[in-house]
Protein backbone atom coordinates (compact mmCIF):
# COMPACT_ATOMS: atom_id res chain seq x y z
CA UNK A 1 0.00 0.00 0.00
CA UNK A 2 1.44 3.29 -1.00
CA UNK A 3 0.25 6.66 0.14
CA UNK A 4 1.39 10.10 -0.80
CA UNK A 5 0.26 13.56 -0.02
CA UNK A 6 0.84 16.09 -2.71
CA UNK A 7 -0.34 19.61 -3.39
CA UNK A 8 -0.59 21.62 -0.25
CA UNK A 9 -1.89 25.05 -1.04
CA UNK A 10 -2.18 26.83 -4.32
CA UNK A 11 1.36 26.27 -5.52
CA UNK A 12 0.19 23.07 -7.17
CA UNK A 13 2.00 21.39 -9.98
CA UNK A 14 4.04 24.22 -11.38
CA UNK A 15 6.27 24.48 -8.35
CA UNK A 16 6.84 20.75 -8.43
CA UNK A 17 8.41 21.19 -11.82
CA UNK A 18 5.82 18.90 -13.27
CA UNK A 19 4.17 21.40 -15.56
CA UNK A 20 5.48 21.66 -19.06
CA UNK A 21 2.59 22.39 -21.38
CA UNK A 22 3.46 23.11 -24.99
CA UNK A 23 1.28 26.19 -24.61
CA UNK A 24 3.57 27.55 -21.97
CA UNK A 25 1.73 30.83 -22.22
CA UNK A 26 -1.32 29.17 -20.72
CA UNK A 27 0.43 29.30 -17.39
CA UNK A 28 0.88 33.04 -17.54
CA UNK A 29 -2.53 33.77 -19.05
CA UNK A 30 -4.49 36.38 -17.17
CA UNK A 31 -6.63 34.84 -14.50
CA UNK A 32 -10.36 35.28 -14.86
CA UNK A 33 -11.46 38.75 -13.82
CA UNK A 34 -13.02 37.42 -10.69
CA UNK A 35 -15.38 39.48 -8.68
CA UNK A 36 -16.03 36.51 -6.54
CA UNK A 37 -17.57 36.92 -3.17
CA UNK A 38 -15.18 36.35 -0.29
CA UNK A 39 -17.36 33.47 0.83
CA UNK A 40 -15.43 30.28 0.17
CA UNK A 41 -17.05 26.87 0.16
CA UNK A 42 -14.96 23.83 0.97
CA UNK A 43 -15.62 20.39 -0.47
CA UNK A 44 -13.83 17.08 -0.01
CA UNK A 45 -14.26 14.94 -3.12
CA UNK A 46 -13.38 11.26 -2.65
CA UNK A 47 -12.94 9.17 -5.78
CA UNK A 48 -12.79 5.39 -5.41
CA UNK A 49 -11.66 3.32 -8.38
CA UNK A 50 -11.83 -0.45 -8.71
CA UNK A 51 -11.22 -0.86 -12.42
CA UNK A 52 -13.04 -3.60 -14.29
CA UNK A 53 -11.21 -5.15 -17.21
CA UNK A 54 -13.21 -5.35 -20.47
CA UNK A 55 -13.96 -8.89 -21.63
CA UNK A 56 -11.23 -10.09 -23.97
CA UNK A 57 -8.66 -7.60 -22.63
CA UNK A 58 -5.59 -8.27 -20.58
CA UNK A 59 -2.31 -6.52 -20.04
CA UNK A 60 -1.03 -3.17 -18.91
CA UNK A 61 -3.54 -0.80 -17.34
CA UNK A 62 -3.29 3.00 -17.63
CA UNK A 63 -5.60 5.48 -15.93
CA UNK A 64 -5.70 9.27 -16.33
CA UNK A 65 -7.68 11.21 -13.68
CA UNK A 66 -8.40 14.92 -14.24
CA UNK A 67 -7.23 17.24 -11.46
CA UNK A 68 -8.71 20.74 -10.92
CA UNK A 69 -6.99 23.90 -12.16
CA UNK A 70 -6.22 26.60 -9.63
CA UNK A 71 -7.95 29.87 -10.46
CA UNK A 72 -9.25 32.83 -8.50
CA UNK A 73 -12.60 31.09 -8.18
CA UNK A 74 -11.33 27.65 -7.13
CA UNK A 75 -8.32 26.24 -5.33
CA UNK A 76 -7.18 22.68 -4.94
CA UNK A 77 -5.86 22.85 -1.40
CA UNK A 78 -5.01 19.20 -0.92
CA UNK A 79 -4.68 16.08 -3.04
CA UNK A 80 -3.82 12.63 -1.74
CA UNK A 81 -4.01 9.24 -3.35
CA UNK A 82 -3.38 5.61 -2.47
CA UNK A 83 -3.84 2.21 -4.05
CA UNK A 84 -2.16 -0.95 -5.28
CA UNK A 85 -0.81 0.63 -8.47
CA UNK A 86 2.74 0.34 -9.75
CA UNK A 87 3.15 4.06 -10.39
CA UNK A 88 1.10 7.23 -9.87
CA UNK A 89 2.38 10.61 -11.00
CA UNK A 90 0.95 14.06 -11.49
CA UNK A 91 1.59 15.83 -14.76
CA UNK A 92 0.32 18.61 -16.97
CA UNK A 93 2.34 17.65 -19.99
CA UNK A 94 -0.14 18.39 -22.74
CA UNK A 95 -0.87 21.33 -24.98
CA UNK A 96 -3.53 22.76 -22.66
CA UNK A 97 -1.55 22.29 -19.46
CA UNK A 98 -4.49 20.20 -18.18
CA UNK A 99 -3.51 18.67 -14.85
CA UNK A 100 -3.97 14.97 -14.35
CA UNK A 101 -2.98 12.06 -12.18
CA UNK A 102 -1.56 9.23 -14.28
CA UNK A 103 -1.75 5.80 -12.67
CA UNK A 104 -0.49 2.52 -14.06
CA UNK A 105 -0.65 -1.19 -13.19
CA UNK A 106 1.70 -3.63 -14.98
CA UNK A 107 -1.03 -6.18 -15.63
CA UNK A 108 -4.78 -6.48 -15.33
CA UNK A 109 -4.88 -9.54 -13.11
CA UNK A 110 -6.14 -9.00 -9.59
CA UNK A 111 -7.60 -5.86 -8.11
CA UNK A 112 -6.91 -2.48 -9.65
CA UNK A 113 -7.57 -0.09 -6.80
CA UNK A 114 -7.10 3.62 -6.37
CA UNK A 115 -8.53 6.14 -3.93
CA UNK A 116 -8.12 9.85 -4.59
CA UNK A 117 -9.12 12.57 -2.16
CA UNK A 118 -9.26 16.21 -3.23
CA UNK A 119 -10.01 19.15 -0.96
CA UNK A 120 -11.32 22.01 -3.03
CA UNK A 121 -12.31 25.55 -2.12
CA UNK A 122 -14.59 27.50 -4.41
CA UNK A 123 -16.22 30.92 -4.46
CA UNK A 124 -18.83 32.31 -6.79
CA UNK A 125 -17.61 33.99 -9.97
CA UNK A 126 -20.11 36.77 -10.58
CA UNK A 127 -18.83 39.26 -13.11
CA UNK A 128 -22.15 40.72 -14.17
CA UNK A 129 -24.06 40.33 -10.94
CA UNK A 130 -21.42 42.40 -9.22
CA UNK A 131 -21.45 44.88 -12.08
CA UNK A 132 -17.76 44.45 -12.80
CA UNK A 133 -18.20 45.28 -16.45
CA UNK A 134 -19.85 48.64 -15.77
CA UNK A 135 -16.67 50.51 -16.62
CA UNK A 136 -15.63 48.27 -19.46
CA UNK A 137 -15.62 49.85 -22.89
CA UNK A 138 -15.18 48.40 -26.31
CA UNK A 139 -11.66 49.34 -27.47
CA UNK A 140 -11.89 52.16 -30.00
CA UNK A 141 -9.47 50.52 -32.39
CA UNK A 142 -9.46 46.84 -33.23
CA UNK A 143 -8.92 45.01 -29.98
CA UNK A 144 -5.55 43.34 -29.63
CA UNK A 145 -5.88 39.72 -28.64
CA UNK A 146 -2.71 38.57 -26.87
CA UNK A 147 -0.84 35.50 -28.04
CA UNK A 148 -1.87 33.72 -24.85
CA UNK A 149 -5.51 34.08 -25.81
CA UNK A 150 -5.18 33.38 -29.57
CA UNK A 151 -5.54 29.58 -29.20
CA UNK A 152 -9.09 30.12 -27.95
CA UNK A 153 -10.04 31.51 -31.35
CA UNK A 154 -8.98 28.45 -33.27
CA UNK A 155 -10.83 25.39 -34.49
CA UNK A 156 -10.32 21.87 -33.17
CA UNK A 157 -11.73 18.64 -34.64
CA UNK A 158 -14.89 19.07 -32.55
CA UNK A 159 -15.00 22.87 -32.63
CA UNK A 160 -15.57 23.87 -36.24
CA UNK A 161 -15.60 27.64 -36.72
CA UNK A 162 -16.18 28.07 -40.44
CA UNK A 163 -18.94 27.08 -42.87
CA UNK A 164 -22.30 26.70 -41.18
CA UNK A 165 -20.84 27.74 -37.80
CA UNK A 166 -19.60 31.08 -39.15
CA UNK A 167 -22.82 31.65 -41.08
CA UNK A 168 -24.88 30.97 -37.96
CA UNK A 169 -22.71 33.25 -35.82
CA UNK A 170 -23.05 36.13 -38.27
CA UNK A 171 -26.79 35.61 -38.51
CA UNK A 172 -27.07 35.79 -34.72
CA UNK A 173 -24.91 38.86 -34.12
CA UNK A 174 -26.15 40.84 -37.14
CA UNK A 175 -24.72 44.35 -37.03
CA UNK A 176 -23.87 44.29 -33.33
CA UNK A 177 -20.26 45.45 -32.83
CA UNK A 178 -19.73 45.05 -29.09
CA UNK A 179 -18.25 41.63 -28.26
CA UNK A 180 -20.06 41.66 -24.90
CA UNK A 181 -23.41 42.16 -26.61
CA UNK A 182 -22.46 39.69 -29.35
CA UNK A 183 -21.67 37.09 -26.68
CA UNK A 184 -25.03 37.76 -25.03
CA UNK A 185 -26.85 37.34 -28.34
CA UNK A 186 -25.04 34.06 -28.93
CA UNK A 187 -25.73 32.89 -25.36
CA UNK A 188 -29.42 33.67 -25.71
CA UNK A 189 -29.65 32.03 -29.13
CA UNK A 190 -28.04 28.86 -27.79
CA UNK A 191 -30.07 28.72 -24.57
CA UNK A 192 -33.37 29.32 -26.31
CA UNK A 193 -32.86 27.36 -29.56
CA UNK A 194 -31.03 24.33 -28.20
CA UNK A 195 -32.61 21.78 -25.91
CA UNK A 196 -31.38 19.22 -23.44
CA UNK A 197 -31.69 15.67 -24.71
CA UNK A 198 -31.57 13.17 -21.85
CA UNK A 199 -30.94 10.29 -24.26
CA UNK A 200 -27.45 11.62 -25.06
CA UNK A 201 -24.74 9.62 -23.32
CA UNK A 202 -22.61 11.43 -20.72
CA UNK A 203 -22.14 15.11 -21.43
CA UNK A 204 -22.31 14.61 -25.21
CA UNK A 205 -19.44 14.77 -27.70
CA UNK A 206 -19.84 18.45 -28.53
CA UNK A 207 -19.34 18.01 -32.26
CA UNK A 208 -20.41 21.51 -33.20
CA UNK A 209 -20.13 21.18 -36.98
CA UNK A 210 -22.35 18.11 -36.93
CA UNK A 211 -24.90 19.72 -34.58
CA UNK A 212 -25.33 22.82 -36.70
CA UNK A 213 -25.09 21.01 -40.05
CA UNK A 214 -27.82 18.53 -39.15
CA UNK A 215 -29.90 21.13 -37.34
CA UNK A 216 -30.48 18.67 -34.50
CA UNK A 217 -30.06 21.23 -31.77
CA UNK A 218 -30.33 18.82 -28.86
CA UNK A 219 -27.71 17.47 -26.53
CA UNK A 220 -26.17 17.81 -23.14
CA UNK A 221 -23.78 20.30 -21.60
CA UNK A 222 -20.77 19.67 -23.84
CA UNK A 223 -22.95 19.79 -26.95
CA UNK A 224 -24.68 22.99 -25.92
CA UNK A 225 -21.80 24.91 -24.37
CA UNK A 226 -19.48 23.88 -27.20
CA UNK A 227 -21.90 25.40 -29.69
CA UNK A 228 -21.68 28.62 -27.65
CA UNK A 229 -17.88 28.42 -27.69
CA UNK A 230 -17.66 27.72 -31.43
CA UNK A 231 -20.12 30.49 -32.34
CA UNK A 232 -18.14 32.96 -30.20
CA UNK A 233 -14.88 31.94 -31.87
CA UNK A 234 -16.49 32.20 -35.30
CA UNK A 235 -17.55 35.75 -34.37
CA UNK A 236 -13.99 36.61 -33.32
CA UNK A 237 -14.55 36.30 -29.56
CA UNK A 238 -12.09 34.00 -27.76
CA UNK A 239 -14.02 31.35 -25.85
CA UNK A 240 -13.44 27.98 -24.21
CA UNK A 241 -15.16 25.23 -22.31
CA UNK A 242 -14.18 24.20 -18.81
CA UNK A 243 -14.84 20.54 -18.04
CA UNK A 244 -15.65 19.75 -14.43
CA UNK A 245 -18.07 18.27 -11.94
CA UNK A 246 -20.84 19.45 -9.62
CA UNK A 247 -19.74 19.23 -6.00
CA UNK A 248 -22.79 20.07 -3.95
CA UNK A 249 -26.04 21.89 -3.50
CA UNK A 250 -26.98 25.07 -5.28
CA UNK A 251 -27.79 27.99 -3.00
CA UNK A 252 -28.48 30.70 -5.52
CA UNK A 253 -30.62 28.85 -8.01
CA UNK A 254 -32.48 26.49 -5.67
CA UNK A 255 -35.65 28.57 -5.96
CA UNK A 256 -35.73 27.85 -9.69
CA UNK A 257 -34.90 24.16 -9.62
CA UNK A 258 -33.99 21.64 -6.95
CA UNK A 259 -32.77 19.13 -9.52
CA UNK A 260 -30.95 20.95 -12.30
CA UNK A 261 -28.02 22.68 -10.68
CA UNK A 262 -26.65 20.30 -8.04
CA UNK A 263 -27.93 18.91 -4.76
CA UNK A 264 -26.75 17.29 -1.54
CA UNK A 265 -28.34 15.76 1.52
CA UNK A 266 -28.81 17.55 4.83
CA UNK A 267 -25.25 16.63 5.87
CA UNK A 268 -23.80 18.15 2.70
CA UNK A 269 -23.06 14.76 1.14
CA UNK A 270 -23.48 14.52 -2.62
CA UNK A 271 -23.14 11.35 -4.70
CA UNK A 272 -21.57 12.75 -7.83
CA UNK A 273 -20.40 9.79 -9.93
CA UNK A 274 -22.62 11.12 -12.72
CA UNK A 275 -22.20 14.80 -11.86
CA UNK A 276 -19.81 15.82 -14.64
CA UNK A 277 -20.72 19.17 -16.15
CA UNK A 278 -19.06 21.36 -18.75
CA UNK A 279 -19.28 25.16 -18.63
CA UNK A 280 -18.05 27.94 -20.92
CA UNK A 281 -16.36 31.33 -20.77
CA UNK A 282 -15.55 34.08 -23.23
CA UNK A 283 -12.84 36.74 -23.25
CA UNK A 284 -13.14 40.52 -23.51
CA UNK A 285 -10.18 42.71 -24.45
CA UNK A 286 -9.15 44.87 -21.52
CA UNK A 287 -11.11 42.80 -19.03
CA UNK A 288 -10.48 39.06 -19.25
CA UNK A 289 -12.64 35.98 -19.03
CA UNK A 290 -16.36 36.09 -18.37
CA UNK A 291 -18.40 33.00 -17.38
CA UNK A 292 -21.43 31.62 -19.20
CA UNK A 293 -23.50 28.45 -19.08
CA UNK A 294 -26.37 28.31 -21.57
CA UNK A 295 -26.50 24.51 -21.16
CA UNK A 296 -27.79 24.79 -17.61
CA UNK A 297 -30.62 27.02 -18.82
CA UNK A 298 -31.77 24.21 -21.08
CA UNK A 299 -31.35 21.69 -18.26
CA UNK A 300 -33.51 23.72 -15.90
CA UNK A 301 -36.11 24.30 -18.62
CA UNK A 302 -36.44 20.56 -19.15
CA UNK A 303 -36.27 19.62 -15.44
CA UNK A 304 -38.98 22.11 -14.50
CA UNK A 305 -41.00 21.70 -17.72
CA UNK A 306 -40.89 25.41 -18.46
CA UNK A 307 -40.89 27.45 -21.64
CA UNK A 308 -38.36 30.04 -22.76
CA UNK A 309 -40.64 32.93 -21.87
CA UNK A 310 -41.28 31.87 -18.28
CA UNK A 311 -39.95 34.33 -15.68
CA UNK A 312 -37.95 31.55 -14.00
CA UNK A 313 -36.17 30.58 -17.22
CA UNK A 314 -35.47 34.23 -17.95
CA UNK A 315 -34.03 34.73 -14.46
CA UNK A 316 -31.78 31.68 -14.77
CA UNK A 317 -30.70 32.72 -18.26
CA UNK A 318 -29.82 36.20 -16.96
CA UNK A 319 -27.78 34.76 -14.09
CA UNK A 320 -25.91 32.20 -16.16
CA UNK A 321 -24.64 34.81 -18.61
CA UNK A 322 -21.79 36.39 -16.70
CA UNK A 323 -22.00 34.42 -13.45
CA UNK A 324 -21.21 30.97 -12.11
CA UNK A 325 -22.31 29.67 -8.76
CA UNK A 326 -19.39 27.61 -7.57
CA UNK A 327 -20.98 24.46 -6.27
CA UNK A 328 -18.97 23.02 -9.17
CA UNK A 329 -15.25 22.63 -9.86
CA UNK A 330 -13.56 22.92 -13.24
CA UNK A 331 -10.82 20.50 -14.18
CA UNK A 332 -9.37 21.90 -17.41
CA UNK A 333 -9.96 23.59 -20.75
CA UNK A 334 -8.50 20.80 -22.91
CA UNK A 335 -10.21 19.85 -26.16
CA UNK A 336 -9.10 17.31 -28.76
CA UNK A 337 -5.67 16.71 -27.31
CA UNK A 338 -3.08 14.07 -26.53
CA UNK A 339 -2.74 12.84 -22.98
CA UNK A 340 0.67 12.25 -21.44
CA UNK A 341 1.72 9.54 -21.76
CA UNK A 342 -0.27 9.28 -24.94
CA UNK A 343 -3.29 6.98 -24.93
CA UNK A 344 -3.11 4.07 -27.37
CA UNK A 345 -6.46 5.13 -28.82
CA UNK A 346 -5.08 8.58 -29.67
CA UNK A 347 -6.37 12.04 -28.77
CA UNK A 348 -9.18 12.43 -26.27
CA UNK A 349 -12.19 14.66 -26.98
CA UNK A 350 -11.86 16.17 -23.51
CA UNK A 351 -10.83 15.13 -20.00
CA UNK A 352 -13.92 15.78 -17.93
CA UNK A 353 -14.19 12.09 -17.02
CA UNK A 354 -11.44 9.69 -15.96
CA UNK A 355 -9.96 7.81 -18.92
CA UNK A 356 -8.47 4.30 -18.77
CA UNK A 357 -7.17 1.63 -21.12
CA UNK A 358 -6.34 -2.04 -20.58
CA UNK A 359 -3.78 -3.02 -23.20
CA UNK A 360 -5.14 -0.12 -25.24
CA UNK A 361 -8.80 -1.08 -24.84
CA UNK A 362 -10.79 1.85 -23.44
CA UNK A 363 -13.06 1.50 -20.42
CA UNK A 364 -16.53 3.01 -20.57
CA UNK A 365 -16.04 6.18 -18.52
CA UNK A 366 -19.64 7.22 -19.07
CA UNK A 367 -20.77 4.30 -16.93
CA UNK A 368 -19.34 4.48 -13.39
CA UNK A 369 -20.47 0.93 -12.57
CA UNK A 370 -18.82 -0.57 -15.65
CA UNK A 371 -15.56 1.37 -15.33
CA UNK A 372 -15.80 1.27 -12.24
CA UNK A 373 -15.58 4.40 -10.11
CA UNK A 374 -17.53 6.04 -7.34
CA UNK A 375 -17.38 9.74 -6.49
CA UNK A 376 -18.67 11.34 -3.30
CA UNK A 377 -18.38 14.98 -2.35
CA UNK A 378 -18.87 16.28 1.19
CA UNK A 379 -19.22 19.98 1.92
CA UNK A 380 -17.36 21.04 5.06
CA UNK A 381 -19.25 23.71 6.91
CA UNK B 1 12.06 -45.14 -29.63
CA UNK B 2 10.53 -42.30 -27.60
CA UNK B 3 12.82 -39.81 -29.32
CA UNK B 4 11.82 -41.06 -32.72
CA UNK B 5 8.13 -40.70 -31.90
CA UNK B 6 8.64 -37.17 -30.59
CA UNK B 7 10.61 -36.20 -33.68
CA UNK B 8 7.96 -37.65 -35.92
CA UNK B 9 5.24 -35.75 -34.08
CA UNK B 10 7.17 -32.50 -34.36
CA UNK B 11 7.58 -32.95 -38.10
CA UNK B 12 4.03 -34.06 -38.79
CA UNK B 13 2.11 -31.83 -36.36
CA UNK B 14 2.50 -28.48 -38.21
CA UNK B 15 0.96 -30.04 -41.29
CA UNK B 16 -2.15 -30.74 -39.25
CA UNK B 17 -2.35 -27.28 -37.63
CA UNK B 18 -4.91 -24.97 -39.08
CA UNK B 19 -3.18 -21.66 -39.63
CA UNK B 20 -4.89 -18.48 -38.51
CA UNK B 21 -5.33 -15.23 -40.37
CA UNK B 22 -5.50 -11.61 -39.35
CA UNK B 23 -8.36 -9.67 -40.91
CA UNK B 24 -8.03 -5.90 -40.77
CA UNK B 25 -11.30 -4.01 -41.03
CA UNK B 26 -11.76 -0.34 -41.88
CA UNK B 27 -14.41 1.18 -39.61
CA UNK B 28 -14.42 4.80 -40.69
CA UNK B 29 -17.08 6.17 -38.33
CA UNK B 30 -15.32 4.85 -35.24
CA UNK B 31 -14.57 8.18 -33.57
CA UNK B 32 -15.03 7.69 -29.83
CA UNK B 33 -14.05 5.26 -27.07
CA UNK B 34 -17.64 4.01 -26.88
CA UNK B 35 -17.46 3.07 -30.57
CA UNK B 36 -14.29 1.10 -29.88
CA UNK B 37 -15.86 -0.66 -26.89
CA UNK B 38 -18.95 -1.54 -28.90
CA UNK B 39 -16.98 -2.90 -31.87
CA UNK B 40 -14.60 -4.89 -29.66
CA UNK B 41 -17.58 -6.45 -27.91
CA UNK B 42 -19.33 -7.35 -31.15
CA UNK B 43 -16.24 -8.90 -32.73
CA UNK B 44 -15.13 -10.77 -29.61
CA UNK B 45 -18.63 -12.16 -29.22
CA UNK B 46 -18.59 -13.67 -32.71
CA UNK B 47 -18.14 -17.46 -32.81
CA UNK B 48 -14.68 -18.41 -34.02
CA UNK B 49 -13.00 -15.09 -33.29
CA UNK B 50 -9.75 -15.72 -31.43
CA UNK B 51 -8.77 -12.11 -30.79
CA UNK B 52 -10.08 -8.69 -31.77
CA UNK B 53 -8.92 -5.17 -31.13
CA UNK B 54 -10.31 -1.93 -32.52
CA UNK B 55 -8.46 1.38 -32.68
CA UNK B 56 -9.90 4.87 -32.77
CA UNK B 57 -6.50 6.15 -33.84
CA UNK B 58 -6.34 4.07 -37.03
CA UNK B 59 -10.11 3.65 -37.52
CA UNK B 60 -9.40 -0.04 -37.97
CA UNK B 61 -10.00 -3.31 -36.14
CA UNK B 62 -7.57 -6.24 -36.25
CA UNK B 63 -9.26 -9.60 -35.87
CA UNK B 64 -7.54 -12.98 -35.57
CA UNK B 65 -9.65 -15.87 -36.86
CA UNK B 66 -9.03 -19.40 -38.21
CA UNK B 67 -7.87 -19.56 -41.83
CA UNK B 68 -11.16 -21.00 -43.02
CA UNK B 69 -13.29 -18.42 -41.22
CA UNK B 70 -15.94 -16.60 -43.27
CA UNK B 71 -14.86 -12.92 -43.16
CA UNK B 72 -18.39 -11.78 -43.92
CA UNK B 73 -19.35 -12.76 -40.38
CA UNK B 74 -17.09 -10.00 -39.12
CA UNK B 75 -18.79 -7.41 -41.30
CA UNK B 76 -22.16 -8.63 -40.10
CA UNK B 77 -21.03 -8.41 -36.47
CA UNK B 78 -19.91 -4.81 -36.93
CA UNK B 79 -23.11 -3.95 -38.79
CA UNK B 80 -25.12 -5.03 -35.74
CA UNK B 81 -23.47 -2.22 -33.76
CA UNK B 82 -24.72 0.37 -36.24
CA UNK B 83 -21.31 0.88 -37.82
CA UNK B 84 -20.23 -0.40 -41.19
CA UNK B 85 -16.92 -2.04 -41.96
CA UNK B 86 -14.92 -2.96 -45.03
CA UNK B 87 -12.18 -5.54 -45.29
CA UNK B 88 -8.90 -3.71 -45.60
CA UNK B 89 -6.47 -6.58 -45.57
CA UNK B 90 -6.13 -10.29 -44.81
CA UNK B 91 -2.80 -11.81 -43.85
CA UNK B 92 -1.87 -15.34 -42.86
CA UNK B 93 -0.34 -15.80 -39.44
CA UNK B 94 1.06 -18.87 -37.72
From TrEMBL, chain A:
<dbReference type="InterPro" id="IPR038765">
    <property type="entry name" value="Papain-like_cys_pep_sf"/>
</dbReference>
<dbReference type="InterPro" id="IPR002931">
    <property type="entry name" value="Transglutaminase-like"/>
</dbReference>
<protein>
    <submittedName>
        <fullName>Transglutaminase family protein</fullName>
    </submittedName>
</protein>
<feature type="domain" description="Transglutaminase-like">
    <location>
        <begin position="213"/>
        <end position="296"/>
    </location>
</feature>
<dbReference type="Pfam" id="PF01841">
    <property type="entry name" value="Transglut_core"/>
</dbReference>
From TrEMBL, chain B:
<feature type="signal peptide">
    <location>
        <begin position="1"/>
        <end position="18"/>
    </location>
</feature>
<dbReference type="InterPro" id="IPR006121">
    <property type="entry name" value="HMA_dom"/>
</dbReference>
<dbReference type="Pfam" id="PF00403">
    <property type="entry name" value="HMA"/>
</dbReference>
<dbReference type="GO" id="GO:0046872">
    <property type="term" value="F:metal ion binding"/>
</dbReference>
<feature type="domain" description="HMA">
    <location>
        <begin position="21"/>
        <end position="86"/>
    </location>
</feature>
<protein>
    <submittedName>
        <fullName>Heavy-metal-associated domain-containing protein</fullName>
    </submittedName>
</protein>
<dbReference type="InterPro" id="IPR036163">
    <property type="entry name" value="HMA_dom_sf"/>
</dbReference>
<keyword id="KW-0732">Signal</keyword>
<dbReference type="InterPro" id="IPR001802">
    <property type="entry name" value="MerP/CopZ"/>
</dbReference>
Amino acid sequence: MERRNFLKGAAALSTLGLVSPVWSETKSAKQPAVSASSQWRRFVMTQTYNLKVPEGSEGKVNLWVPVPENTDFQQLVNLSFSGNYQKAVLNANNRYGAKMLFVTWPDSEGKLELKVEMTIETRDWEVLKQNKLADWQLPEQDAVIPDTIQPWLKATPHIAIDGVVKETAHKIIGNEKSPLKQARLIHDWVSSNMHRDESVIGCGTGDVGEILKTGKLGGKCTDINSVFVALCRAAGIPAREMFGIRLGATHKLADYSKKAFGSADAQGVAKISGGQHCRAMFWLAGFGWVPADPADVTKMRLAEKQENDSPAVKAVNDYLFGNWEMNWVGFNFGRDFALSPEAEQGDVNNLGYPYAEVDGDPLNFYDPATFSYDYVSVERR
Amino acid sequence: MKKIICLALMLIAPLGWAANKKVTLDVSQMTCPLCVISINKALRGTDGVIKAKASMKTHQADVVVPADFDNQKLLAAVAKTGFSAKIHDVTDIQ
